[in-house]
Amino acid sequence: MARHAAAPLTAGLLLAIGAALAEAEPPDYATTLTEGAGAEVARVGREQGPEPAAALAKRWMATFGPSARVEYELGLAWRLAGNDEKARAHLDEAARLDPDLATARYDRGEVRLVDNDLAGAREDFEAVARLEPEAWPGWFRLAELDGRAGDSRAFEAHLLRAFRCGFSVRAVAQDPTWRGFVGHPEVGPVLVRLVRVYQGEEVLEAIGAGSAPPQSDGTPAGR
Question: How far apart are CA 106 and CA 108, in angstroms?
């Protein structure tokens, strides 16, 4: 069988490759540094707990300066440990340093929701929906806030957007807040109609609405 020699790398080709590499934008050093630090704080938080993670974060920021990503990961470590008060302090700082850090805004919104700070939670979830419009978590949480407020029109708009981004009501089938929406006089019919049209009878049964009669007000626009 004939063997074909590989084409030799000519000086011209080597120069062309070098020029292309030189023109490529190098990774941002500060971003690379803070992403690595955040990942390490997250790892220590998972494996050793929030206090060792806090010590690491303190040492790192004393050397390199404040970091929204590091503060966020530390806040998340405290959340996972069940201490929302300490988590809130770090999530507040992360959001102050970088208001466009969607992960920090979402987690702080959840802490605010637990604290019944509904206006603060809405502010954060609106930011998440603006920053990550193709992801469902921000839209889902806005729908939840609308449901709590009894605003059926906003609930429909935000839940429909969440559905289109991939949200399934199955994820909250056992959540008492969402199961409670089923019996709400204004929100309940909207929830039943949207789930029936977009996700089916099996999902309706999962949230405790399997026996709900079909609605007569039609399907939502955009079906």
Answer: 5
